[in-house]
Amino acid sequence: EVQLVESGGGLVQAGGSLRLSCAASGFSFDDYTIGWFRQAPGKVREGVACIRRNDRSTYYTDSVKGRFTISSDNAKNTMYLQMNTLKPEDTAVYYCAREKKYYSRDYYSWAACGANFGSWGQGTQVTVSS
C-alpha cells in the first residue's frame, strides 16, 4: 500500500527557512517521478518541484527557483523540500506526491515533470508571516 506522510511545516517569518520531509512506504522513490505541490486557500493546487523518473533531473516552478531545493534519500525512502528565503506568497498547505499510472479521483497532470500524480500525502501547513 502506497503511503506518504509530510512533516516539517510551521510558522516562519519572511526570509526564514523550513525543511519539509515526506516519508514513504509501499514503494521506492527511485522508481517514480515524485514531487511537491502546494495549495493556498481559494487557489488551485500547483506544482512546486519534482524529480523526474527517467533521469532523476529536477524541475522547479519559476516562483521558487533559486530558493527551494528538492531531494530524496533512498536509504530512508524519504524526500525533502528545503525552502529558503521564504515569502508570504509561499503560505500554503504543502503536499508530497508520487506519479500514478492509472487515473484516480485526485489525479494531477504536470506536463513540465512529464508525469501524472495520483498518490498524495495529507499535507503540512506552511505559514510565512510578513
Structural class: mainly beta
Percent of residues in helices: under 10%
First CA to last CA: what distance? Answer: 40 Å
| Major sheet attributes | 8 strands, mixed
Unreliable stretches: none
Q: What's the total helix number?
A: 0
How do the SSEs run, as a string of H and E? EEEEEEEEEEEE
Bulk shape = globular
What is the residue-mean pLDDT, rounded to a whole number? Answer: 95
Describe the structure.
By secondary structure, the chain is mainly beta. 0% of the residues lie in helices and 52% in strands. Strands 2, 4, 5, 6, 9, 10, 11 and 12 form an eight-stranded mixed β-sheet that branches. The mean pLDDT is 95. The chain has no helices and twelve strands. The termini are far apart.
